[in-house]
Amino acid sequence: MSQHVLSLLVEDKPGILTRVAALFARRGFNIESLAVGTTEVEGVSRMTVVVNLDGQPLEQVTKQLNKLVNVLKIVELEDDSSVARDHMLVKVRTDASTRSQVLEAVTLFRARVIDVVSDSVVIEVTGDSAKCKAFIKVLEPFGIKELVQSGAIAISRGSKSMSEKVLK
Amino acid sequence: MTETLSGAQAIIRSLELLGVDTVFGLPGGAILPTYDPLMDSSKIRHILVRHEQGAGHAAEGYAAASGRLGVCIATSGPGATNLVTAIADAHMDSVPMLAITGQVNSHAIGTDAFQEADIVGITMPITKHSFLVTKAEDIPAVMASAIEIATTGRPGPVLVDVAKDAQNAKFEFSWPPTKEMTPGYKPVTDPHGKQVQAAAELILQSKKPILYVGGGVIRAGAHKELHKLAKLIGAPVTTTLMARGAYPDSDPQHLGMPGMHGTVPAVTGLQKADLLITLGARFDDRVTGDVKTFAKGAKVIHVDIDPAEIGKIRHADVPIVGDAKVVIAMLTQELEKQLKGKKYDISEWWSYLNGLKERYPLGYNDLDDGKLAPQYVIERIGQLSGPEAIYAAGVGQHQMWSAQFINYENPNTWLNSGGAGTMGYAVPAAMGAKVAMPEKLVWAIDGDGCFQMTNQELATCTINQIPIKVAIINNSSLGMVRQWQTLFYNKRYSNTDLHTGTDTQMVPDFVKLSDAYGCLAIRVEKVEEVDAAIKLAMETNDRPVVIDFIVGRDAMVWPMVPAGVSNDAVQYARDAAPIWDGEE
After folding, report:
1. In which residue ranges of chain A is pLDDT below 50?
2. Does A87 lie in the same domain as A73?
3. Residue B582: its pLDDT value, please?
């Protein structure tokens, strides 16, 4: 099983998410995560798709995606030339005796507490998926009541922009 | 210059301006506004079908016979879903097709309104692209984009779903449309020069090359270029089910059709080759059999306009993305340059292949029950009608025999449902072909099963003076399924008996049925009646003709490679594998 991060520039049209997701489903490609949002260019959205491939070459995935008329550009973002971040919100059980330990973990992971009540806190953390996983592990003993993850978003390092060649 | 038009008028005007002269369709509530200006169009002929599936296959037949865009039109909900099979069929066989459907009013979309169906959603996996139009002013640009997408690159079906209020709304129409609807659509047609050079080098190094020709060569109109290439290098040619007619059957370099029911020389030629020159073909499972053992010793040059086909099934040593017509011409030129007048000698390869051709020609036996051999009937239709005629087949045994026993000399003369395998394709496809090419003799060679799926279009043919000829190869059963039951299910004939033969209940009686549709209907049971019936059909042009050929049900399609088995195990006839020389 190999994991790849694909960044897609797509036209912001109704149904585009269905088109991309359905293509993955019908061709048997596994999506680990998918995040979509607007970009610096009006009418253009960007998707970050993390795919798990078991046997199929990545080339087949990108070629099939390229056949979707509303897909403008696809690049694979490699580990060493890009940064990928997950955003995570966690609701952790706390009481007077555990709160300080939880807050210590928050500081160590450079996370933030965004809501506090007597028996729980909501923490936001941003980082690569390894960091997020490690943070969950640390929090687990206290009791995770709720966990929401954004899926990875990724961007290349350096000054080049993905949209500059596609959209004059 | 602008002009105030309704969305409906804009649909018709755009079609006219884009050169559409024929549409096949059936009206209903949500498409009613568009049918009104359609009535006034002097440029567009609308042919009213009896079922929307018929409109879809007719558009396919029109496109496949002429190389032009086929257009079908239907209303929302069930009208649109009845097009689905034909759209899927066009998608699998890369047929340029535009499907226009009415949709409920835009504010009613998503409310489960009467005759509402999410046809854009339903057809997403089986269209090249689709549009939902909710604003009248988008119509010209959408129509232009839809037709561009359907007809360029790898052709395919495009759906345009238009909300009823968008058809009714008025707007300022101007032409050509300025709005770019699809900035992401850029098909590659010109190949990489270096790749072509590498392909030529690989060809000249090979000792046992074979041209593996697919339907892409027909869609690209590259048959002349193919001929020139084949003659230059003298390599053997195989034409897949979708490519029959791309290379003349009469040419001695032609080994015939490869695949599950391919000729022994074609199947074995591919297996033993050291180089596959793959042109517009996609390594379909019906051609390759077990992929792991397919053409094991061969390198692969793969030419296709769709980059996603290259490397999908089989690794390509030299991948070339481009239009087959352009690529083949460039490749031929490059080969001429590299050959510098020298002869490319593959005579050893030919002596092997010629041995196979001699030992394993296509053939068939008479049947024990004394009934007509279906292969004979089809062969005679081909011989009497000649290579200028157009032949559309349904799906099953009769389709395979039509691919095997009719000699094709020209592209776009063999129409069939290759990828999807859609029973019921023949009658409406032949109708569409006859509308596109009215001067041509058009046959639908159909099975008794297939015929019962779409024969209602005979009414369309009679009313609209579309004199097609239908040959029902009536073996009173779902013949191909029955053949598999004979071979692989211990002759347990589960649900394959159709009771349409003369010694059965004969429901329906195809002669009576066709007569009721206003056709000239003939029944043929004896060998000596075959030619006369075919000739009478060819002479009758004031109405459609249906010949009910009562044939034996035990005839089987040979040769055969059972599904999923290596092509090395091709069976020439039942329990008769070809005899290979020594180590071969």
Report:
1. none
2. no
3. 46
Active-site residue flag, B538: no
> Among positive and negative, which fits the CA dihedral B540, B546, B550, B553?
positive
A70 at interface of B, judged by CB pairs closer than 8 A: yes
Q: Which residues of B touch A57 (CB under 8 A)?
A: 311
**For residue A87, what is the domain's CATH number?**
3.30.70.1150
Q: Using a CB-CB distance cutoff of 8 angstroms, which residues of chain A are in contact with residue B121? A: 15, 18
Tens of pLDDT, residues B144-185: 999 999 999 999 999 999 999 999 999 999 999 988 888 889
pLDDT at B578: 77
Q: Which domain holds residue B134?
A: 3-173
Whether residue B122 lies within 8 A of chain A, CB to CB, comes out as: no
Our CA-based measurement puts residue A153 at a distance from the nearest CA of chain B, in whole angstroms, of: 22
How far, in Å, CA of B123 to CA of A17, rounded? 15
d(CA B330, CA B225): 9
CATH at residue A15 = 3.30.70.260
> What is the residue type of B368?
D
| B382 and B498 together in one domain | yes
Nearest Cα to Cα of residue B306 among B323, B292, B318: B323
Q: Is A55 on the interface with B (CB under 8 A)?
A: no
Q: CA–CA separation, B206 vs B565, rounded Å?
A: 27
Q: Are residues B237 and B279 in the same domain?
A: yes
Residue B409 annotated among the catalytic residues of the structure: no
Q: Which of B483, B83, B154 is nearest to B303 (CA)?
A: B154
Q: Is residue A98 part of a domain?
A: yes
The residue of A11, A59, A65, A69 whose CB has the most chain B CBs within 10 angstroms, and thus the best one to mutate to test that interface, is: A69
Are A32 and A59 members of one domain?
Answer: yes
B115 labelled catalytic: yes
> Per DSSP, what are the bridge partners of residue A89?
A124, A148
Can you give the pLDDT at residue B575? 75
The Cβ-side half-sphere exposure at B233, using a 13 Å CA radius, reads: 32
B124: nearest CB among A18, A60, A72: A18
Q: How many domains does chain B divide into?
A: 3
Which residue in B128, B164, B299, B357 is the catalytic one?
B164
**pLDDT at site B581:** 55
B450 occurs within a structural domain: yes
Tens digits of per-residue pLDDT, B332-383? 999 999 999 899 999 999 999 999 999 999 999 999 889 999 999 999 999 9
A159 belongs to a structural domain: no
Residue A160's Cβ-count burial label (10 Å; 0-12, 13-18, 19+) is exposed
ipTM for this model: 0.92
Cβ–Cβ of B124/A67 closer than 8 Å?
Answer: no
Contacts of B381 (CB under 8 A, 6+ apart): B391, B406, B443, B445, B471, B534
Asked, for residue B579, whether it belongs to a domain, the answer is: no
Range of weakest confidence among A19-28, B132-141, B413-422: A19-28
Which of B83-92, B347-356, B359-368, B574-583 comes out lowest in average pLDDT? Answer: B574-583
Query: Which of A77, A99, A118 is at the close of a domain?
Result: A77
Contact B184 A22 (CB under 8 A): no
Residue in the structure block whose two tokens are 């699809």: B182
When pLDDT is cut at 50, 70 and 90, the band that residue B584 belongs to is very low
